[in-house]
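Support request, please re-run this one:
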Amino acid sequence: MPPVPPKHAQPHDEDPIARRAHILEELQSTERHFLVRMHHLLQDYHAPLKARAKSSDPLLNMYQVNTIFPRSLEVIVKAHEAFYAALEAVEQKDVPKILLQHVYILLCSFSR
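Re-run finished. Output below.
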């Protein structure tokens, strides 16, 4: 049986405060990158296609644009903007509360 390689401990593995800080930084980074991509999608693809669908020379009709980009896309982005703002302002101890609040908000916005 081959020997098990030693686990390389990260500095935040042992310290719960450092671990929580690392998790918060990862959440903030993930949301920030997600929002950049979503804004790019909305501004560079969705808005031009929507405007062109309303023009006299449409590339796609409005039905096709709405099939590619669901109408809830802007609601999703607004919910993530609120989540990101909350993550930026939150104290480490309140991260679980913020997560639950925003999951609840997202679920409620799609159950209508």
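Residues 16-110 form one domain. The two ends are 57 Å apart (CA to CA).
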